[in-house]
Please model this.
Amino acid sequence: MSRKKNLRARKLGSLALVIMMLCILLSSCGTPKLPENLDKVKKETVNVILEATPVIESGSTGGEFALKGLLDSGVKVDDNIGKDYYTSLCRKLKKSNGVLSEDMYTEYARAAIGVMAIGKNPEDVEGYNLIAPLDEYKILQDQGVHAEAHAVIAARMAGVKLKSEALYIEDMVKDIEGTGHKQNAFESDYIAIDLEGLSMIPKKERSKAVNDAIEKGISYLSRCQKEDGSLGNSDSTSVAIIALTQLDVDIFKDEKFIKNGKTLADGQMKYYLKNGGFKYTDEQKKINGMSTESGLLALDAMSYQQAGKRLYENKNK
Model:
């Protein structure tokens, strides 16, 4: 009798193990694994953005970064998307006599990146130069170091070395050097953007101070990474992925960015929703527009890294 009970217990134990393994397998199948499903995830995310924003116009959401994400994804999109964006930007510039903002000069950097995404010259958009305002150091400094970083990114992408670049670099280096021991998503965003800016400086032009700041910034992002692979939310994870791929850090293999067996890509996909799009936090259930655009840029950055390229390329590298 006891032998029958033991046999039955073993069978039940084996059945429970099989059920548990099936549950794990099914749950893992719910979220596409990267990098092997990059193309699939990009296509689904592109479709979500196009459905939400059929017309791309200059702006923080549904604007230039959405445009770049779409056009850099490798997914076929309507040619009119770029044409319509350029037409709307030209109309906007003419109406304002070339002034996109009096004090938010990231508007010029963002517009320049959008113009370059469609293969146009940001130094001549209907006669207006979008790069020139990025040399206004005081205005950019007042807006914040993230604005200075974007100025360097846009200018270097256009093949321009700004007169104020050394000052911008100094501020980015100081920002990273002043990083505290406390890790949080808000600060990690700014450090990642600093790293994006510094990544545009060719290696042969980087001073020891810049190289040291880059190493410190990378180490800081590693400390910010959670056990699930993310940096606490979708946007922070996206910007970290972009910054690190800009600096040739392999986000899939570098041990500094593998926590509890989870990579940054795994962390990013934690916020991915079925059929495309990203939510901002784990608690949210609906797609977040800005997180989805940032997520697509991060996916593009992963694809570029695998091809030996970068999302933000220095024109005169």
